[in-house]
Amino acid sequence: MAYRIESVAGDAGEKRAIAAFLAAFVRDGELPFPRPGDDDPAVWERRMGGWWDGNPHCREDSPKGFRLEHDEAGLVGFSGYIPFDYEVDGVAVPTMVSTTLFVREGHRGAVMGLFAKQRAFAKTHQIIDGSPSPEVRRLLEKFGYPYAGDRSQYFFPTRRFGGGFARALLRGIGWSFPLPSSDEAAGCRLVSDPADWDGFRVPHDGRIHRHGGRATMEWLLRTGAERRSFHGLIDTEGTPLACALGVHRRRGGWKTCFLLDYRDHHPGSAGLGLLLRKLLDDPAALPLGTAGLVLTRFGSSTLHGVAGRRVESNLYYHLPPPWQHRQKACLPVEGDLILI
Hints:
Aminopeptidase
């Protein structure tokens, strides 16, 4: 069988054709665990618009992915990329987030051609893959992609769902940690609009970090299907203390706010704790009926002496040669799922 691999340009007609292919792939039962909207071409077109058209990190020459074409069957595969800016000590690290690798069952012998294209980009770009299937995961391990490791989750129920008593029980099993008192947070103020936040800066600590500018946060807030919110905290003088992107999900029937992207600007690293306390104390800070907050982080070290609930991660990445000696700072928000 004769195949061609074509670069995705991302024009309107091409997006419609790719969206129709992806939706049909799902309707035909070839995706084991589809998400809501995966069988709707309009949903895929909207997603691609967020990945490329509304993405502040996507430039005219940014790689957007590849189409796998068969001489007789036409479009039989798609491998997408979402451009994203990372940096280390102020120096840009070109990055692509891998997304939506779909290849028709009768043509999966050609999937290695798509991986070869990705490996060619890996010479100049950081590649991040945050939602691989077991098959893709095995391939990433085979190709030497580092695994970011498991994550820790810390739970903070709101007043309506047990408040301080429930948090004390969770501390007893190592799933939560003590927060600053309400008095300590009393002089702090919450900011919910990124336009009013003056703390967008990336740490200069020798590690590779996600770009954290205002345009990036506004893009993350408006892209993807899940409800999300911005939470910033400033002190009485207006100095930024901490900020976080909250993603609102229903887990086990409960509405929960997951803090997946965050920065702590407090000189004593108390900013996130103060932010959590303020969010729990302010009844208007979270949607009505929110059961609690979940802070998720990578790393084997404890947070405030507490291990948290360990959960598996699917995050893999590859650093290009110029940056392979650097350490990557991993965040739970990384990967493509938040942008779908």
